[in-house]
Structures are given as structure tokens and as C-alpha cells.
Amino acid sequence: MKHYMPSRILTGIGILQKHKEVFPAFGKRCCIITSKNSGRLSGALDDLTEILEEYSIDYFVYDQISQNPTVVSCIKAGRKAYEFKADFIAGVGGGSVLDASKTAAVVAANPELTEELIYKQSWNSKPVPLILIGTTAGTGSEVTYVSVMTNKDGIKKSIHNDDLYAKYAFGDPNYTISMPEHIRISTAIDALAHLIESYFNNNANDISRAYSLQGVRILYPKLKLLKEHKELNKEDREIIYNASILGGLAINITGTVFCHTLGYYFTEKYHLLHGFACALFTNELLDYEYTHHQEYCDVFFHALQIDRDEMKETIRSLLPETDIHLSEEEIQAMLPRYTDNGSVKNTYGAMTVDDIETILKRL
User: Fold this and answer.
1) What pTM was computed for the model?
2) Backbone φ and ψ of 353, nearest 5°
3) The domain 8-175 is classified under which CATH number: 3.40.50.11810, 3.30.70.100, 3.40.50.1970, 3.40.50.1100?
């Protein structure tokens, strides 16, 4: 079995304040990387700067990270940290910010890096220490060694490297309160996608499957609350956040499957939120596995004590209405992207590009 997790993971209400003593160990200058709004609205940025000021740690706030960050923006953030002579970086935000912070930490130690060298993962110096503080419950980026960026051609492409792990991953469920409902649902369904994709994965092992099953087990009842537009209490938020972390730990072992790599296209071209774009294909994954590997699929649903059709209906109900209809020409133009694709190969069984074509035609 394979499992590696060097990040120290700390979650719970008020977790930053409870463990504020860790920050001085990383130095006297911190570059905070965040977006225009989420860090501030969540309260996480204020909590962090209060701690830094208490320990007389100088800081610089770089708040220019947007959804689906470009490699160029990650390089710019890293060079700003380098110019500030940051001893460490603290990323505060959702998955886009956390992913950008990972690459920025590499660039802060290697300011000469270009987009090409980043994707080749060719750097000489180890990144500056990285602390990640999540403000959404879905991506699990706090605990992964993956950074997903949009390249110069407008295509989402990831790098995977042990250098990208955070030293500390903090998660306070209260930071998720400020999320608008559509973001809350998209991120929660992204967590479900991670958990399911990790289970139905050729790289799955007993550890990853344990993460997947427990994550779905605790998350699924909360998805039903979201489906009914119910108010979430403190316990609900904490459970969803923990499920997101379990999803991150699961895909850290296995990677994702075809749903994610197809979802990237619909984020790029149709501007669907990442979670919704990936979950467009979660039911297709469940159908594919039931058709080709029914016994393995039955074990999954039996362990969860959840009906497969009921889960599919819950997923459908959480997805937004779309008017996406792919032409034959568009589908054919997409297919080369999925030839020899790692996520397609990861899909439990032996998925082919012909299977992808069939799935796209059903959309």
C-alpha cells in the first residue's frame, strides 16, 4: 500500500488561535496569498494577521488570486514573496488560492522559474515553508501535493510533487459560513466527487478506500440538507469540512478519474464552477462501474447502506440547470485530450477514449 502525509492537519473551531505558537517557528516575514474577498469575508485573514502581529512577524498580503488561477498569476505571487524576502507563505482561501500558494512557494525560492519549467517540475531549491488555511469545504487542497493551474493555452493542468505539501493545514469550519449557497453546494459536491473517484480508481488501496467510505458516510446526509436548502449548524459545517479533508487524503493516494479531467473542460469553456463541472460526470462513473464491475460497485453501496439510484438522484438535484449540448465536431475536437490521459487510465477497470466519447454524447 502507498500512503504519505507529511502535513500536520489541524481542524476545528478556533483552530488558528489554539495553535498560534507554530507561526514564529517559520521566521519573521510572511507573505499571505489570498483572493480579493474570501480571506477577508471568512474572517480567516483577520485571525491570521492578528496572530502575526502578536508575534511581531512582518507580513505582506498578495490578494490577486482568482478562480482557476493561471500559471502566470502563481509566478507573480511567488516573485512578490521573493521580493518581500518572505521566510514563509500562508495561503488563505479556497482551492484556487491554496493551489496557487503551493506553486508560489516554489517560485519564492526559485524566482527564475517560467511556466515551462514549472510544468517540467524543474527547480533547484526547495520551496519556502507553506501554511495553508482553508475557507471552503470541498477541494481538500490543504492536504494534497497537487497544484491545478490554467496554462497559457487556457487549459487546466496540474503538477504533482512532494515539495507542494504544506507544513501545516488549518481548517476552521466557521470560515465556511460566509460562502454563498451555490459555492457551498459546489464545493461539497466536489468533496463527494473526490471520495467516489478515489474509490473507483485503479490506484485504490485499503487506506484510500477507508478514507473514501468514511467520507461519503458522513457527507451524504449533509448533502441531503443542502438539497433541501436547510440551514447548516456548527456540527454540520464541521462534518462537511472533515469529509472534504478525507476526500483530499483519498485522492492524495489515488488521484482522480475521468470525471475531473472532463470537468476541467467545462470549467474552461462554459465557466461552470469546478465542483459542478466534475459532478456532471459522477453518475456516469457510477453507471460505468455498475455495468462493468457490478460486484465492486455493490460492495461500495452495501458498505455505505445507501441506495445507488437514490444517490444518483441526490447528485442530479444538486447540479445547476445547464443548456450545454455538445456538437459532434466539438466532441471530436475534445477527444485527443483524453488519449493516454492519466485520469482516464485511473478509472477502475479499463476505460477507453471510446467510452469517453459515448459519455460526452449523452450529455
Assistant:
1) 0.97
2) -65, -30
3) 3.40.50.1970
